[in-house]
Structure formats: structure tokens, C-alpha cells
Amino acid sequence: MTAVAVCILLCLLVPPSLSCPKGCLCDGRTKVVDCRGRGLYDIPRHLQPDTLELHLQDNRIRGLGSMAFRDTPLLRVLDLSNNSITSVSPSTLLGLRGLHRLSLANNGLRELDRRLLGPVRSLSHFDLSNNSLSGLPGALGESMRNLTQLGLAHNRLQRLDKPLLDNLEGLVHLTLRGNPWRCDCQLIGLKLWLETFLFKGGVVDEVSCAQPEDMKDKDLQMIPYQLFHACMTTSYNYLFANIHHLESERSTRGHTHGNGHQHSPMGIGEGFGGAGAGLPECEPKQRPRPVNLRHAIATVIVTGVVCGIVLMMMLAAAVYGCAYAALMAKYQRELKKSEESKGERGGDHTKAAEKEPLENAIA
Questions:
Q1: How far is C-alpha 189 from the geometric centre of its chain's CA atoms?
Q2: Which residues contact 147 (CB under 8 A, 6 or more apart)?
């Protein structure tokens, strides 16, 4: 068989899907596909199915459709930073169960669907910096339990929902700078969460207040709780419950972690370069809350018992008082009758004494 025939046979046997996309660089050994700065408007086709890393930053991609990466089910690193992405389908990442690092930084995203990360089970690095996000759905946090690094810097965030924060159990590195945070009662949850996060050894840059005017440019972590005096009672209950939680953890662990306010912002390179490898590990879970509930129930029961005893004592005192008054009244009546009867007998004796001398005189 001639060499030409062998080449023709190989071309027929090898499907085009195993070739490298035009203009991209493919490394067959590391399974890395580099399509950076190629002026692409869409996700390239004919990617090798065993691709582990796909770099698409610095292109002109505007949107991500449903199952956009169905040809690369083994993908572990996906970098889409510095494009023009404004929309992402809820099923874009469908099939990427092994994805570890995802960057959507430096795009035009205004919102994310709560179902976006549903198919992903092992995401550890997620960079959303430099977008136009005004909020994140709380349900999104259910798919972010394994995150160790999260970038939210330079968006339009004014608050973060507590359900989202509570799910970030393994987070080590967080960037929040450059957002117009509104430091009112709604942000007490974030302030308290940050204290727990820092206490566990986490690293965060800053939360600089943009509103209200009297707190502008102040770091939320440095603002004393007394300045939130206008907050509702429920907010204060949440505040003191979390303060008690922190004190309990301190007494249990017996030591604190250093570098609580270390400033180490996570850029695009850091988010995908493993910069957080040397950071302290977080505890996997926060302490259970039912203990406080049991204390509250016990307090209510004890209070009810004490109140019941006081009421019984008051009732017994009232009955005793009434009985004593009745006995005294009866005693007074009997005493009065006795005095009256003695007076009548004394009058009869007087009359008899006056009558006896008169009879003697007549005689």
C-alpha cells in the first residue's frame, strides 16, 4: 500500500471532530485548547472530546447557548473572560459535571440564572469580576458549596442574600471590592458572615460602603454595630445570635486565626493559577443552630413554671385574706351580741335594786 493510500485511509477513519479548531492551538499531551484572542464570535466546533482545558478569553463571544460545551464533557477548566457575553442559557454547562474552574470575568452579564451551576458538582473557582451583576440568586449557592475562590469584584452589588452566603461552606478566598454596597440593615447579615469567615481563616479584600451618605467610603468590617441603631428588632436578634455563635466558637476552639483582614485581591490570573493553595482551610460546616432553639424552649418553660407558681401564691394569699376577714367579721358580731346581752342583764338588776328600798319605805 502506498503512502498516499495510507493517508487517504487515515483521513477516512479519523473523524473531523478529533481535529483542532482553525486558528486554535491544541496540545495533545496536556489536552489543552488555546483559542485566546482569535476574534471568535462563537464557541469553536470540532473540539476533541477529551479536552481538559479550554481558553477562550479575549474574543468577541456575545452569548452562550444551551449545551454550548456538549462536545467536551471532560472539561475541567473553562476561561471565557474578556469577551462581550451578556446572556448565558441556564443549560449552558449541561454535561460538565467535572468542571473545576470557570471564569466569566470582564463581560457584560447583568444576571445569572439560579440553574446555571446545577449540572456542575465540583466547581472550586468561579470568577464573575468586572460585570454588571446587581445581585445573585440565593438558590445559586446550593451549587457553590465546594467553592474555594469566588470573585465578585467590580459589579453593581448592593447586598448578598443570606441563603447564598450560608452555602459557601468551603470558601477560602473572596473578592468584593468595587461594588456600590448599601450599608443599611440589609447588610448586617453580610457583616456578621464576614466576621465568621475571617475568624475561620478566610481572606477577603474589602466592602466599601457607597450608601448612605454618612457611611460612604467606610469599610463595612470597621463600622461598629451601634451605627445600625435604626435596624428592625429582627435584625438585632439575628445580630446577637451570631455574636453568641462567634463567642461559642472562640471558647470551643481556644485560639484565633491571624491575617483576618489581609488584602489579597483575586484577579483573572490568580483565579486560574491556584493562588489560594496555601491559604488556611475552612471548617466544612458552621455550628448547628438547634442548640439556641432548645435554650429558647427551656427558657419559655421555666418562665411559665415561675409565673404559675407566683399566680398560685397570689391566689392562696387572696383566699387566706378572705377567710381571715370572714372570721374577724363573725368574731365582731358575736362580741357585739355578747355585750348587748350583758347590758340587758345589768339593767334588770338596777331596776330590782331601786324597787326594793321603795317597798321597804311603804312598809
A1: 7
A2: 123, 124, 125, 126, 168, 170, 171
340 membership: H or E segment, kind and range: helix 290-362
DSSP string, 117-185: TTT-S---EEE--SS------GGGGGG-TT-SEEE--SS--S---HHHHHT-TT--EEE-TTS-EE-SG
* Closest listed residue to residue 223, CA positions, set 258, 190, 198: 190
Closest CA to 112 of 129, 137, 132: 137
Alpha-carbon distances of 155 from 58, 203, 212, 300, rounded to whole Å:
19, 19, 18, 46
Q: Is 306 helix (H, G, I), strand (E, B) or coil?
A: helix
- Report the greatest alpha carbon distance in the chain: 188
Please give the distance of CA 68 from its chain centroid, rounded to a whole number.
Answer: 32
Residue 363 DSSP symbol: -
Answer positive or negative: Cα dihedral of 133, 134, 140, 144: positive
Helical packing angle, 188-199 and 233-253, nearest 10°: 0
Full DSSP string of 44-112: -SS--TT--EEE--SS---EE-TTTTTT-TT--EEE--SS---EE-TTTTTT-TT--EEE--SS-----
Is the backbone of residue 266 left (phi > 0), alpha (psi -120 to 50) or beta? Answer: beta
Q: How high is the pLDDT of residue 292?
A: 58
Residue 361 predicted with pLDDT over 90:
no
- Whether 62 and 48 have beta carbons less than 8 Å apart is answered as no
Contacting residues for 196 by C-beta, under 8 A, at least 6 apart: 242, 245, 246, 249, 286
Residue 17 in grid coordinates: 471532530
List, for residues 197-239, the tens digit of each pLDDT value: 999 999 999 899 998 888 888 888 888 876 666 665 444 455 5
Q: Which residue do the cell numbers 392562696 mark? A: 316
